[in-house]
Design goal:
32% of the residues lie in helices and 28% in strands. By secondary structure, it is of the alpha+beta class. It is globular.
Length: 99
């Protein structure tokens, strides 16, 4: 299964120090024990199309071998540390999970 998370960062937090820390946090999330693989990135510079949304600042994508591993990830202490550390900088977050 795939877990996709899109982050919109509040303007007042878009500084080099905060974004570097956030990027380090995203990298940590891709290596939590329950994950099969993962990564993160910023919106691609693709053509503007009505069906595409490139308004987010960062995206995290993680693959899990099972729904059970996804569920374990959601309650993993590393996940809680990430959320608690960065939730104040998010203006918006969207999650899409795909089987």
């Amino acid at each position: 299964m795939q877990h996709h998370v899109y982050f919109w960062i509040k303007e007042e937090h878009k500084n080099a120090e905060t974004l570097a820390a956030f990027e380090k946090g995203l990298e940590t999330m891709t290596n939590v024990v329950h994950t099969a693989s993962g990564g993160w990135g910023k919106p691609a510079k693709t053509l503007v199309r009505p069906v595409s949304d490139n308004t987010f600042d960062y995206a995290l994508y993680i693959t899990f071998d099972s729904l059970e591993k996804h569920d374990a990830y959601q309650v993993d202490p590393d996940h809680d540390v990430f959320v608690d550390s960065f939730k104040e900088i998010w203006g918006n977050v969207r999650v899409s999970d795909v089987e």
